[in-house]
Amino acid sequence: xxxxxxxxxxxxxxxxxxxxxxxxxxxxxxxxxxxxxxxxxxxxxxxxxxxxxxxxxxxxxxxxxxxxxxxxxxxxxxxxxxxxxxxxxxxxxxxxxxxxxxxxxxxxxxxxxxxxxxxxxxxxxxxxxxxxxxxxxxxxxxxxxxxxxxxxxxxxxxxxxxxxxxxxxxxxxxxxxxxxxxxxxxxxxxxxxxxxxxxxxxxxxxxxxxxxxxxxxxxxxxxxxxxxxxxxxxxxxxxxxxxxxxxxxxxxxxxxxxxxxxxxxxxxxxxxxxxxxxxxxxxxxxxxxxxxxxxxxxxxxxxxxxxxxxxxx
Amino acid sequence: xxxxxxxxxxxxxxxxxxxxxxxxxxxxxxxxxxxxxxxxxxxxxxxxxxxxxxxxxxxxxxxxxxxxxxxxxxxxxxxxxxxxxxxxxxxxxxxxxxxxxxxxxxxxxxxxxxxxxxxxxxxxxxxxxxxxxxxxxxxxxxxxxxxxxxxxxxxxxxxxxxxxxxxxxxxxxxxxxxxxxxxxxxxxxxxxxxxxxxxxxxxxxxxxxxxxxxxxxxxxxxxxxxxxxxxxxxxxxxxxxxx
Amino acid sequence: xxxxxxxxxxxxxxxxxxxxxxxxxxxxxxxxxxxxxxxxxxxxxxxxxxxxxxxxxxxxxxxxxxxxxxxxxxxxxxxxxxxxxxxxxxxxxxxxxxxxxxxxxxxxxxxxxxxxxxxxxxxxxxxxxxxxxxxxxxxxxxxxxxxxxxxxxxxxxxxxxxxxxxxxxxxxxxxxxxxxxxxxxxxxxxxxxxxxxxxxxxxxxxxxxxxxxxxxxxxxxxxxxxxxxxxxxxxxxxxxxxxxxxxxxxxxxxxxxxxxxxxxxxxxxxxxxxxxxxxxxxx
Lengths: 313, 243, 283
Fold this sequence. Notes:
The complex is a heterotrimer of chains A (313), B (243) and C (283).
Chain A: H1 5-24, H2 27-53, H3 61-78, H4 82-101, H5 109-129, H6 132-135, E1 141-142, H7 150-174, H8 176-186, H9 188-192, H10 198-224, E2 226-227, H11 229-232, H12 235-249, H13 254-270, H14 279-293, H15 298-312
Antiparallel strand pairs in A: 1-2
Helix pairs in contact in A: 1-7, 2-7, 2-8, 2-10, 2-12, 2-13, 3-4, 3-5, 3-10, 4-10, 7-10, 8-10, 12-13, 13-14
Chain B: E1 5-14, E2 17-27, E3 32-36, H1 43-51, E4 58-63, E5 66-67, H2 73-79, E6 81-83, H3 96-104, H4 109-114, H5 119-128, H6 145-158, E7 163-167, H7 175-190, E8 194-198, H8 202-205, E9 211-216, E10 219-225, H9 226-231, H10 233-239
Parallel strand pairs in B: 3-8, 3-9, 6-7, 7-8
Antiparallel strand pairs in B: 1-2, 1-4, 4-5, 9-10
Helix pairs in contact in B: 3-5, 3-6, 5-6
Chain C: H1 2-29, H2 36-53, H3 58-81, H4 88-110, E1 124-127, E2 130-133, H5 134-156, H6 158-168, H7 170-175, H8 180-205, H9 214-227, H10 232-253, H11 258-272
Antiparallel strand pairs in C: 1-2
Helix pairs in contact in C: 1-5, 1-8, 1-9, 1-10, 2-3, 2-4, 2-8, 2-9, 3-8, 5-6, 5-8, 6-8, 9-10, 9-11, 10-11
């Protein structure tokens, strides 16, 4: 696997720093970081499937939504305790997602992106009209049980989730399966020509991605305590997830985390100057320029810069 | 261990075009056969049917005694048949070592996760096609056409084939590289590998094969020793453009 | 029944116009222009600003919308599609980002709230119990006029035939001396114009708000997917399938489900017939 002591040292330093953060920053900043943590989880989930294998999903909130709605309905309507509803939600996301996406996995390129977009629009419209007594219809649900109280606890919960997901994905992707998934993204035919069943690999990537999406969606809903279809199945949300993964650095684990924090803070620091939704204009513009300049993302820019510094000394 | 490849009454039609027309031949285990014919004769189509990239219209393909013509491409590769491509298809953002690693992987998700890469075998394969140890960390963008063919060869060998199909392995190679790949094929022949080789470089092909098969318009026009096939009227005519 | 027939025809005509600009780009470069919905957005708002805020003649509003749409199409090709040549995934992702940026730009200029577009032609015609606003009638007729002109342009003019050639076989077209770059420019310009004009009509059908670009994009996508690779005739047929399906769903099942049927259709066709109902056709 090529694991070295300094990999673990870097992880330990990162986790240690993040756990000490509440001592150093304000509660307001902490709430921003909570969102960044969740966004990082969603971006990692997207990257496992789309960043690595090149099967771009434009409907990732579809998966997040299955997880979020499952646990919301179970806790709110059937009084199921959260400890049971979250694992069920993750399971339902994986199986439910699998049933609908399985036939789509043989569809390549742009069409795959479109079918995922269609799935997101479909579920958006369905939750509003089918059994609104369960889903809460257009207005969604509020008053869901929350897991934590206060910014500091919410921060620790989101951080723990993000670190576990990131470290787990990092470990798995360092093995040969990570190489194989990236190989699909580069040349699917040549992977087949190396004797590997591409379908099985794509299925694995999808299930892992769905698991993380379901987990993230379920925890997010119990952090917010509410769920609204308009905000969840939103093209702006898709955009934020994809951009976080891409401008951070697709096909890496650290990239989506960098991207999520970069975007969240960019959005927050624009708030004083552009209080309304207009800041998406600057934010999107920056994202577009960054992506056009270096499609491999910030992580690649940092690495190239580091290589240049080392070459000089 | 080596295996034979038997093709019987193979037919492939693309719409109105017959790309393979009732082709039958056997390559005995450990034999090396040259497949020759003018451009567009249907050589590559035969390869892609043996590998299952195109499904034959009718006919049978046997590896040893097992019928493989209904299996998927990865399943055929695991049974022991593997090919190289005219246009090399490396994984562009991976190093030479990682490219070979993909070929060495078991076809099981758990197997990929639980067992680490066999870096010794990666090095061994890279060295056997003529890379140096330093080349392992290079990426395809830094490689010449010759190097890319060597990489293609190494990744194909990594799947542990019993029968290898080589498609234009000498195209774009320098004289030294041709000599090196030839030596490699000779060595593998001595170890009992079965080969089916397509090459336009007839001079390089001749010493590598036991017998030859000539096809044109998807049909066999000559079969026998390399010298006899090249001397046959049908083959001469086909290369001059008259069928 | 008459009502469904008329409503279906009117809606389908508009959908055909919406889908056409998207289809053109797809057939020329196999590119899914996910920023296409933004042309409609810009067209709608330009018309609103010129005709309603400034109070200029309505025809000036439509013309300016068309010109701005054309410029947007050309700029997008120059600045985004060409630099990323060949990488479809990158083009699609950057298109999506661009659409979100443009939406934010609209919010910046016009605010978040939705605006009602005054009818292009006021008045209502009653046919067999159905109330048909003149505006909708005008939109459908105008759509048909534009579509027929486009068809004649593609079939009869030299440039149109060159577009056909590029869509069928880019390499062959290049060998026969067609300047693919020029054809691409023209196509992107036409696509932007069509989108912006369709936006004016679409906005008068529904209403004007910053997020209005998603729904027509989905319709355009549905038409391309269901029809297979875009021919003008195929686009017309599929636009009518989708238009009538929506009208009938709202009339017989439930108005809220009209969009659902479109999604189900997209998904079913993609899974069962990935190349579309009509397969590959020429432009």
